[in-house]
């Protein structure tokens, strides 16, 4: 399963962030289209989930006091998903709200295990025939 981390900035490495919301969806096919679908959405009260540095939030993680708006649905291979995390980073005694976003796709390896593709990364190592390859485009997903 995917595990969603924040950026590698100095502020994130040094200061904990409280996760306020995690939202995963299948993006719309075109601007203003109504065919997008939320596959997981959860809100978290203050200080329930703190992450720092390379910590991440696993897909489907729903702590006991979380407000589950959309329960985690099974993810499918060959589908592009968008993810956004709303956090409050604690710096110098103050909370600073930040939103992080990304896109990912899952594919199955020959041994049956699942690979998570960061679609904002480079798709140069993704072989032809991989169902996620079509979503890479100049380092960003369509």
Structural features, described:
The chain is mainly beta and 142 residues long. The chain is built from 1 helix and 11 strands; from the N terminus they run βαββββββββββ. The strands form 3 sheets. Strands 2, 3, 4, 6, 7, 8 and 9 form a 7-stranded antiparallel β-sheet that branches. The protein has a two-stranded antiparallel sheet with strand order 1-5. The longest helix has 5 residues. It is globular. The C terminus is likely disordered.
Features:
mainly beta; seven-stranded antiparallel beta sheet; 1 helix; single chain; about 140 residues; two-stranded antiparallel sheet; 11 strands
Helix and strand topology:
Layout: E1 3-5, H1 10-14, E2 17-26, E3 37-43, E4 50-51, E5 56-58, E6 67-70, E7 80-91, E8 94-108, E9 114-118, E10 136-137, E11 140-141
Q: Strand content of the residues, in percent?
A: over 45%
Count the E strands. Answer: 11
Distance between the termini: 22 Å
Q: Give the overall shape, derived from the CA principal axes.
A: globular
SSE string, helix = H, strand = E? EHEEEEEEEEEE
User: Which stretches are poorly predicted, pLDDT < 50 over at least 5 residues?
Assistant: 138-142
What kind of sheet is the major sheet? 7 strands, antiparallel
CA-based gyration radius: 16 Å
Structural classification: mainly beta
């Amino acid at each position: 399963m995917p595990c969603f981390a924040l950026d590698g900035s100095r502020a994130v490495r040094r200061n904990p962030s409280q996760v306020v919301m995690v939202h995963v969806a299948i993006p719309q096919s075109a601007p203003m289209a109504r065919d997008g679908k939320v596959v997981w959405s959860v809100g978290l009260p203050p200080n329930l989930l703190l992450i720092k540095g390379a910590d991440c939030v696993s897909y489907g993680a729903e702590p006991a006091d979380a407000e589950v708006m959309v329960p985690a649905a099974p993810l499918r291979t060959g589908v592009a998903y968008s993810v956004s995390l709303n956090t409050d980073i604690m710096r110098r005694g103050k909370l600073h709200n930040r939103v992080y976003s990304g896109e990912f796709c899952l594919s199955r390896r020959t041994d049956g295990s699942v690979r998570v593709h960061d679609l904002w990364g480079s798709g140069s190592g993704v072989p032809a025939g991989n169902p996620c390859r079509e979503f890479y485009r100049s380092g960003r997903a369509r």
